[in-house]
Design goal:
- By secondary structure, the protein is of the alpha+beta class.
- It has 2 domains: about 130 residues, Beta-Lactamase; about 110 residues, Arc Repressor Mutant, subunit A (Orthogonal Bundle), CATH 1.10.10.60.
- It has a 5-stranded antiparallel sheet with strand order 2-1-5-4-3.
- Helix 6 packs across helix 7 and helix 10 crosses helix 11.
- The longest helix has 19 residues.
């Protein structure tokens, strides 16, 4: 048995980590099933939903927990991820809570798969964004720009194009992304391209040369060089690592 599987088999309950995140006041953590219902969450999320205990979240969907637009938006986002098996990577969102408080967050969500490779749920977290030097209008414009880029996997924008979408100069865009993500605008776009390419390598069998072109690289060699630099494996080795094992044959 593999080390991780052996370790998990020895635990008295599933390793969902919600207790660990109870002590991180600027981060909400959650796990949801294929219907978008909470199966685990940290106490921070419960308190932001106006609940005393995190157990009150279990079995409910986001639109049952958060009234109004926020709940509808989160539930729609969950359905999109569960339907497409596509991860959400550091999306900049404005959360408006039931008590009137609001705040900007960076949200990550990853689909979870069962042993047959089907989507069984999702896991995610949202981290509060503390950036006092940013004007609210500027942050809102940047959020819309990043969401537009995230929603168009067929488009590989340049730094200039992203800055124009956000209504910022390239220099200001670079400053804002460094403050939020700790990386430059160029690094952010490179990460976006590699994330998209990785998902296609994991879940499809299309030619690597086509993925390279769609990811904005002039040829497969340039793509492979950048991919190996960021991931530590060639695209082909990465695809083989994540290939599903063939089904067992029985006599």
């Amino acid at each position: 048995m593999r080390p991780l599987a052996d370790f998990l088999a020895r635990l008295d309950r599933p390793l969902l980590c919600e207790d660990l995140f109870d002590g991180v006041p600027d981060t909400v953590f959650f796990v949801k099933d294929a219907g978008g219902r909470y199966v685990a969450a940290n106490q921070v999320l419960a308190e932001r939903a106006g609940l005393r205990r995190k157990e009150a979240l279990i079995g409910r969907t986001a639109d049952e927990v958060f009234p109004g637009e926020l709940g509808r938006r989160i539930a729609a986002q969950d359905r999109a991820i569960l339907g497409s098996a596509r991860a959400l990577k550091g999306e900049l969102e404005l959360h408006i809570y039931a008590d009137g408080r609001e705040g900007w967050c960076l949200t990550w969500k990853e689909p979870l798969f069962d042993r047959d490779g089907e989507v069984a749920g999702l896991i995610g977290l949202s981290r509060d964004l503390r950036s006092a030097n940013a004007a609210p209008d500027e942050t809102a414009c940047l959020s819309r720009a990043l969401q537009a880029v995230q929603s168009r996997p067929d488009v590989c924008p340049t730094v200039g194009a992203l800055a124009k979408l956000a209504g910022l100069t390239p220099f200001r865009l670079d400053q804002r992304l460094r403050a939020m993500f700790g990386i430059s605008a160029g690094q952010y776009l490179t990460r976006l391209r590699i994330d998209r390419a990785s998902a296609r390598l994991r879940h499809g069998d299309e030619p690597i040369s086509q993925i390279a072109l769609d990811s904005g690289y002039g040829d497969q060699t340039a793509f492979a060089r950048q991919f190996r630099k960021r991931v530590g494996l060639s695209p082909g080795a990465y695809r083989r690592l994540h290939a599903r094992p063939p089904p067992e044959t029985r006599p």
